[in-house]
Structure prediction request, 65 residues.
Amino acid sequence: MSDTVYEASVRIERTRGPHRLAHLPAHEGPVEFGVHGAIAEHYGVSGIVTETTTTLDYVIAATGG
Prediction:
């Protein structure tokens, strides 16, 4: 097995309910994650003040490259 080439240093901070702040390398300030639309409905999240990008949205965007 080869040596580790890169190890990401990431810190996740839960702010309230499904909302989190991700502190990522090479990014100025935290990235906000939460829920929106059909995803919020699926998980039964109500009372969302601001719909926010989900972690799933980021995975799909990264996969699309």
In short: The first helix runs from residue 37 to 42.
